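Listing S7. Sequence submitted for prediction.
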Amino acid sequence: MSVRATAPQRSSWRQLRRVALRVVAGLALVAPAVGQASRPRLRLERIDNARCAQERLLVAYASELELEGELRSRPPSEYGLWAGQRRVAARPSGATTFAATGETLHLALVVALGPAYREAVPALREGAASLARALPAGSQLTLIGYTDEARRLGSRLPARRVLGAVEGLASAELAGDPALVEALGLALRSLAVGETALQPQRPVLVVVSDGIDRQPDWEAFRAIGRRARQRGVPIHPIAYSPFDERGPLLNLGELAKRSGGTLRWVRSAGGMVSAFEQLARQLNDQLVLTFHWKACAQATPLTLAAGGLRSQAVLAAAGRAAARSAAREGSGAWPWWLGLLALVLVVAVATGLVLLTRALLRGLPRAP
């Protein structure tokens, strides 16, 4: 004889199942931090081959980090460049940091401003301001806030205007369905708009969120992460849940994983400032390593290795400095002799018009 579950029993089972899923998600989030807390990662953001044709040089932009973003220090001479299983450069011929290169950033900052974030807003303001002050000179910041809709609060703000926009951040009074995915899409579009070959900037997306979206679809977050990766935009989430709801934070982990960014899990609102400061160090102190390789023109996926660590594979591509140079060379600038010829023609035409006007005036009958 079979016994059918009653409606209350089915409801209890559903609640139990939801709780179990949340526990599993929380354990999945915590387990890496517990089991691999000291295990670093080597992240290779991009390889610039702009100097390959003339100098046979490749420039690699990389960071060696602990699991949640603490920057590690290693002598640059220990890094090697690999093509598959073959080491093509045993050590770099030059090394510096991103901040020392003189390049600039376009950073899009997406922040949650729902009522649940009310107590975290002061720390959010302080942390965002510290990040803005740390950006390299000439950098710009686009600020996007979201509640039940995404709003652009400032677009390509220079340093002198960023702090005022950050100080104006405030949480909403009424709760709504959070539009996190919409805000991320707006941020990616904002990073693309206004980018020109004459003013190239390193794009970066930072999101402060609890990972909750009105449509809880993991595939949406995976798709955004993949799109960001294709556009060369690493996403660096600062994950904070006011109610310690850890399951949705996995959405932010997907963004970081797919785009090549770094997830920072903030356990309390007070830890948000240090997370921003840590992120600023990661951006500014990113290693810029120059490698000599005679066959640098080969379209081969390359990896960086040091101390038993190996980065993901990256294809070399012309970087932003190359785009700037190419744009200047092909921007239509005239040779000096062509400019002189144009000036002579303008003067000749103007002189001819003056002479023609005088001749016409002589032919007119004079008044008695």
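Caption to Listing S7: primary sequence and predicted structure tokens for the chain studied. Residues 62 and 227 are 20 Å apart (CA to CA). The first helix runs from residue 7 to 35.
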